[in-house]
Amino acid sequence: MGRFFGNVRDRFDLGDDNATQEEVEASIYKGVEFRGTNLWVLICATFIASLGLNVNSTAVIIGAMLISPLMGPIMGVGLAVGINDFGLLKKSLRNFLWMFVVSIVTSTVYFLISPYSSAQSELLARTSPTTYDVLIAFFGGLAGMLAQTRCDRTGTVISGVAIATALMPPLCTVGFGIASGEIMYVLGALYLFVINTVFIALASYLMVIFLKYEKKRTLDQAASKRMKRYVALFAAIIIVPSMILTFNILRKTQFEANVDRYVTNVFQFNKTMLVDYDTRYRYEGKKSAVEVRLVGEPLSRNVIENAGAQMAYYGLEHTELIVRQADENEHIDFSKIQHSYSEIIDEKNRTIARLQERLASVRMVDTIAVADISREIAHVADHVGEVSLSKHVFYDIQGRPSDTAVVVTVKPDSLLTGRMDRDKIAGWLRTRLKTDRVILYIEGEE
């Protein structure tokens, strides 16, 4: 058992490829610098990310995150706090501020001149941070700092952390909010950026503590405890709002799932059709509501009241039911009905086309006139009693139709005493049927 645990401990040991503290500090010091090339790369990355958010392209946004140099100053803050290097801390914060201002100004300028002003889904996704974003930033920061402390400093991990933690898109969303005057976009995206920044720095700080790096300056016990309390308090202040947002998002998701089940099961009538429905979850200080739109035979008040009474069974207590019917002078969007029927018709047309294609692959172009051929063959060969013809389909070993042929069976009459002229009959059939794929069987032949 001791050998087993020893083997497990060896596999998780970080000492084999551990870089020296001096090498790690030199690498992070270099990443903290924010001038010249790094500055212009950040501007280019900001424009690329803004374009990606503007046209709703995930691939473009990922490309911008890969080339963005935002991680350097943030990891510098974590390292500086971990080793009490206040000179590095000031430098990291100063460069971080530059990074923040340049990104915001660049993205704002872009969205002010961009002809596309609508908020796409990729942009909206950066306006409602949750606890999941906290966890992503924290574990991403751990992975990034761990990669920085290795001898090889693999770029794959750093690139992956840049994508996962997504520092650049929230800054560009802030620029969009400023350019469009949407203060809620600004606040939401700014909060997401603060979450990512704080928890990447916190993860870096914890990794430094775990690796027991030597302190640049020794603090007395009271000052050390005070610093740890500040770090914990600041992290708590950041994480609490995200937990509240996460809880609300989970409740809203559950509410929408309950509404889906309720509408699907309850609003099923023979002469009344559900067009569509909307949900409003705790809007403008009011209780939640479900609004359904119906066409067809109007539902009576008793039926509607019965439908409302069933809401509690689907977890929709304290939810208002609003029923819109076509005869109540309410506007019904019939374009949605037309769109629904169009989708059904298109699917049926596609099915018909597939079946026609399969049918065409297994049938011959012309039709065999069996009755005519049975009369004509008597003038080609003597002593023909009966004739049968059929189309035959050949399949390959994958079950796909590969070829077709006409199978002809000739039954001689009772007066035949010798062999029938097979070649003559087969040649005539190929000419008559206009196909070389004729298989002839003559009963009684060996």
Category by helix and strand content: mainly alpha
Number of helical elements: 16
* Helix fraction bin: 55-70%
**Average pLDDT number:** 78
H/E series, N to C?
HHHHHHHHHHHHEEHEHHEEHE
Radius of gyration: 38 Å
Distance between the termini: 79 Å
Specify the biggest β-sheet: 3 strands, mixed
**Shape designation:** elongated
What share of residues are in beta strands? 5-15%
- Stretches where pLDDT is under 50 for at least 5 consecutive residues are none
Features:
446 residues, mainly alpha, 3-stranded mixed beta sheet, 6 strands, 60% helix
Structural account:
The longest helix has 46 residues. The strands form two sheets. A three-stranded mixed beta sheet has the order 1-2-3, with helices on both faces. The N and C termini lie far apart (79 Å). It is built from 16 helices and six strands. The chain is mainly α. A hairpin with an 8-residue loop joins strand 1 and strand 2.
Question: What's the topology here?
Answer:
Blueprint: H1 2-11, H2 21-32, H3 37-55, H4 58-67, H5 71-83, H6 86-113, H7 121-124, H8 131-148, H9 155-165, H10 168-180, H11 183-210, H12 221-266, E1 272-280, E2 289-296, H13 301-309, E3 320-325, H14 334-362, H15 370-376, E4 384-395, E5 401-412, H16 422-433, E6 438-442
Parallel strand pairs: 2-3, 5-6
Antiparallel strand pairs: 1-2, 4-5
Outline of the structure:
The protein has helices at 2-11, 21-32, 37-55, 58-67, 71-83, 86-113, 121-124, 131-148, 155-165, 168-180, 183-210, 221-266, 301-309, 334-362, 370-376, 422-433, and strands at residues 272-280, 289-296, 320-325, 384-395, 401-412, 438-442. With 446 residues, it is mainly α.
